[in-house]
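Q: What would this complex look like in 3D?
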Amino acid sequence: MSLSFVNLFYLLSAVLFIGGIKSLTHPRTAVRGNLMAAVGMLVAVVVTLLDQSILSYAWILAGALIGSVVGVLMATRIQMTAMPQMVALLNGFGGGASLAVAVASFLAINGPVAASGVIGMLAVGLTVLIGAITLTGSAVAFGKLQELLPGRAIGFKGITLFNGVMMVVALSIIAALTAGQGGTGLLLLLITIALVLGVTLVIPIGGADMPVVIALLNSYSGIAAAAAGFIMGNTVLIVSGALVGASGIILTRIMCVAMNRSLTGVLFGSISEEGGEQMDAD
Amino acid sequence: MDILIMQISLFVLAVILGIELITKVPATLHTPLMSGSNAISGITLVGALLAAGSGDANSLWVSTLGMVAVALATINVVGGFLVTNRMLQMFSRRR
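A: Here is my prediction, written as structure tokens for the whole assembly.
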């Protein structure tokens, strides 16, 4: 299929996502909204599979088979009471997927996903950073809600300073990569730092505040997808990622207001424990 | 450069749309909406498919990472939409 046809179908799936999110905000249309979004995803996937730049289907088939089986099993086996942590876990997988795509783009020399130029490298760095934070941050959120980790705030003195320094180092590495000075070693260092940051940003937040954190991490995984879109110049990734990223921030704010929390508090991982008792998790 | 400007325009417009899209959401729909938009963020599956299928002869890493990404993103997408549907079914039964 030619590129302009592919992009037209990408537009269709973006429209379906917009309609889906809109419908999900009203009780009467919510089921239809979810269905619309799922159809949008199907359109995007089918059209991508018909893209002429895809040369081999073996790896795709293997990945899709594993993913479908695990996804269906997880979604049907989970208890209804465990939904928030389920969303956290799924969201972490999404972040991990963006991370893997970015690393693949970094390593690819040519082909449809190869990152090139300043913008490509900047996008790789940002996708790696946000994707990895989403991956481990969501894992910690899952662990807290599933009571694999203690629900209370865990931390050490100066954890905020530690996070700040780590973030500065991560951004410096991204700057170096963007300037074309980084090799695979530097990318691995960035991945490690970002994976650690995901843990240290979420672990000081108490279990009662986790729904807000999950909403925020959901927004992050959208931004990671959009950044991945900039690596390979893919419009459906850019548009859908930006949609989820922006609407996720707004939803986070709405949930903060509903639960009497400050958005900046969640953003910088410093929610106080006081008054965390009287909330209900939805 | 022109293409980049177009992409940035798309990004900015989509951000504004995303902000405007969510206004009043009843509290019972917070989790389903979060879960549904989480499934949409699995759109990174498209990038994963392109990486896994690129048939990059230079490196097995690209294909392997692509496959891992396809698996993770598929869990996100399939699980996400199914879980959201289950949640919403529960609400409609209750009403």
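A: To summarize the key features: Chain B has four helices and no strands. The two ends of chain B are 53 Å apart (CA to CA).
Q: Very helpful, thank you.
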